[in-house]
Amino acid sequence: MKKRIMVVFGTRPEAIKMAPLVNELKKSKHLEPIVVVTAQHREMLDQVLKAFNITPDYDLDVMRANQTLSHITSRVLERIESIIKEEAPDMVLVHGDTTTTFAAALAAFYQEVSVGHVEAGLRTYDKYAPYPEELNRQMTTRLSDLHFAPTIRAKNNLLNENVSSNSIFVTGNTVIDALNTTVTSSYKSGVLDEYEGKRIILLTAHRRENLGEPMKRIFQAMKTIVNTHRDVVIIYPMHKNPKVRELASKYLNHERIQLIEPLEVLDFHNFAAKSEIILTDSGGIQEEAPSLNKPVLVLRDVTERPEGVESGVLKLVGTDYNEIVNSTNELLRNEKLYKEISNVENPYGDGQASIRIIESICYFYGLISERPKDFSNS
User: Fold this and answer.
1) Pairing of strands 91-95, 3-9
2) Sorted alphabetically, which Pfam families does this protein's record hold (predicted)?
3) β partners of residue 234
């Protein structure tokens, strides 16, 4: 009889990273998935589900206008609990650091169901950066029975927190698995065609800690960059947050700055592949870009993904106007530096993470005898 694995996610980034795992679980002879989405991000989540041809078994649809973290946490906790009671899964799989992740893990713990944590062990050790993700991540660790660390550094973070080495598996990151199915050389887009021959900077900025003055500085830097380089175009898929959109509309009025709606996952990955530079305050993009040979300027003061900084493909620039402008100018002007950064091997994965996670779960239940080998990019 197959083990029943409940896979829970609620946001667009989670969906992108869990979709390859769900589709691999469907093929497993030992495991079967029960897919539960909370729809913490409704529209953006649906785009990913459609792209990967996933139909959830349960859709909690928790998103509400002006929702708070407390509202999301309580709704997810209560509703996931009832599904766990009904379905009696052998394990609940959660991902990363969202409010959905923590609440679902807590619900599983209350029902004494094993928890597997995908993308475990990332840390900044600053509980307000990123907020609330850092504490969601740490609290989920305490609730988990299996920890799927994407890198050796993430594993070492867990070991330093006295997590048993027997429960940690280094798998690489599932987002690289997703890229293997979404990026194609034949991709076409009217927006990209419009700027044929231009150098495209892809911008994403939406984090809570960057709202207000930090985001104003980011947007002001963007205008300076396009005014300095006449062959540069900035494409900004705006987050649905009304506060982000208000600031973008006010400060990014320029003929070579394109404000567009959030991109579906297939579009976003291909836009990233065709861009020159990526500026972002997102986490997942930091992992994806090295596989696309794109340098990334991270619009945050700290990152829980230091491997990319150490390898050179990522640079932390924070939200300082001068640092953003100077670092971007350097990449646009220094061809040698650009090539060096673009050719760094991805430290985050090799496209086999989902398979390693499934093998690790099978090993945990004694369904296979040999412990899976850890991912290593060395």
Assistant:
1) parallel
2) Epimerase_2 (PF02350)
3) 201, 257
